Amino acid sequence: MSFIKNEQTSNLWFCGSDSMHQVNHQVSFDFAEQKFPAGMHICHLYTSENERQNTNAQFMRSGLLAGEKVGYLADILPSITDMDDYLSHLGIVPSQQAKPEQLVLAQAEAAYCPDGTFIPERMLEYWRSFCNQAQSERFAGTRVTGDTSWLSKGMPGVERWIEYEAMLNSLEEPALHGVMCQYDVSKLDGAMLFYVLNVHPMMIVAGQVVRNPYFSMPYKPTPSLQE
């Protein structure tokens, strides 16, 4: 394996914002031939593991092919020995030209809550640092996708999760190309589903990236995820 960096801690950053614009720069997410302005903040609401894996693979693969630094915050990380099979299952094949640090995997809960507490401002600082790192490593940009099933554990601070998602819409980083937040619909009640849709400018529907008609800014405080 020539391009995988597997981290068990929070050594993974991403940057995402619909308000972050790069002049004339368009990116592909591999869901269709259409390209989008850099800085897309996308919501993927999935109903099956197969759907999640296929969408995740397309998003990550297109970033790697574009020469971007790609990050994946996973609920469950494969072991180093299973990494080749894991990526092959996603349809991701290593490139001889890829740098070792191009694809970074990290366990989601450990990345978001390194000390057991979720703090939005701390996460934003990590994302800014990663964008700077990707630029210094001369990658074409960054994109990230993350599982959110860990939120159901009720970690301290998760009541600010939707606030954090809204804050991503104002995060301006030149290395940003896209961020996709993955949500298992079966783990969201009606209220949380509404709030999740409320803070994502874009969404994936039937394998296509589309404008989210439910997106609304500015952010308003929401009920706790722990209730």
Protein described:
With 227 residues, the chain is an alpha/beta fold. The protein has a single domain (4-211), classed as P-loop containing nucleotide triphosphate hydrolases (Rossmann fold). 28% of the residues lie in helices and 22% in strands. The protein has helices at residues 49-65, 83-89, 108-112, 120-136, 161-168, 190-198; strands at residues 4-7, 26-27, 36-37, 40-46, 69-74, 103-107, 142-147, 176-184, 202-205, 208-211. The strands form 2 sheets. An 8-stranded mixed beta sheet has the order 1-6-5-7-8-4-9-10, with helices on both faces. Strands 2-3 form a two-stranded antiparallel sheet. β2 and β3 (36-37) form a beta hairpin. The N and C termini lie far apart (43 Å). Residues 6-23 have low confidence and may be disordered.
